[in-house]
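<goal> How does this chain fold?
<body> The protein record starts here
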Amino acid sequence: MSFDLSLLGWTDSRTAELPADTVPARVARVDRGAAEVIAADGQHHVKYGARVRRASADDPVALPCVGDWAALRWLPEGRYELDDVLPRTTAFVRGGVS
């Protein structure tokens, strides 16, 4: 199965933002420590990689959110992990309590 990520908003100009040896995916759902993503080869349930866990330890905004573009890395075990969250171009930000 093949999916055209441009239907979800992917543009080739974002390719330069991908870490080496990763593929792009759109985050469709998030769980604690994992996410459902849509990549060119279909939908995957992926766990967060070390880079995401380290970044989010100091900044919870670094965790993936629905709609984010993510970089997936293929592991020797035959599955992907969510290696990085690409820079956001837009965001909904919840205001603090008054």
Q: What stands out?
A: The chain has one domain: 5-10+19-85.
